[in-house]
Amino acid sequence: MFDQLHYSEEELGLFNPAYTGFILYSAISEFIRFKPDGMHCALAFVAAPMAMNHLIASRLPTTYKTPIGSWVASNEGLLSDFSEQAESYNPIVRAAISFLLERGLLSINNKGCFFLGGNKLVKNPALFSKSFDMSDALRASRFLGKWFSHAPSTETIFAQLGIRP
């Protein structure tokens, strides 16, 4: 799962399941506002790394109407190794998903789509307003949830980002 021995103290602080889970929860929450049939679980492995990477988060478009393909084309250099970056986040995202599922904050259906669970989280925790990096990741995760909900499909998002599921 999430082998803490492979991470520095700073990385453990940044990648802890509660923080990453909140970033993921926010993306899912925003996604289902626009597409109530749920967010495919594979998108968690794209949304979290994109939101938590400051360079990528700072270069996201200003509107969800921007096609993902055109944004990728204009940011090729930034995304040249995104597939490897996303893969390196897999244990972190899995730990965050487990954290959310165990606490009833997230549920998953038989089609592999995430929904918010019976328990809810606050939308804007005070802690996030004290750190630019945290508030930026939160802003990016919400945007990505909305943006991905308007994309044609999960497969299209993966293909445009150059990721194999």
Written account of the structure:
The protein has 165 residues and is mainly α. It has helices at residues 9-14, 17-34, 44-52, 54-58, 68-74, 76-79, 82-88, 90-102, 126-129, 132-149, 154-161; strands spanning 39-40, 106-108, 113-116. The protein contains eleven helices and three strands, in the order H-H-E-H-H-H-H-H-H-E-E-H-H-H. Helix 2 (17-34) crosses helix 3 (44-52), helix 2 (17-34) packs across helix 8 (90-102) and helix 3 runs antiparallel to helix 10 (132-149). The chain is globular, with a radius of gyration of 15 Å. The model has no long low-confidence stretch (mean pLDDT 89).
What form results from the Cα inertia axes?
globular
The CA-CA distance between the termini, in Å, is 19 Å
Radius of gyration: 15 Å
The H-and-E topology, N to C, reads as HHEHHHHHHEEHHH
Query: What is the beta-strand fraction?
Result: 5-15%
The number of helical runs is 11
Low-pLDDT runs of 5+ residues are none
Main β-sheet, in a few words? 3 strands, antiparallel
User: How many structural domains are formed by the residues?
Assistant: 1
How would you write the strand order of the largest sheet? 1-3-2
Helix share, percent: 55-70%
Mean pLDDT metric? 89
Structure classification: mainly alpha
The number of distinct β-strands equals: 3
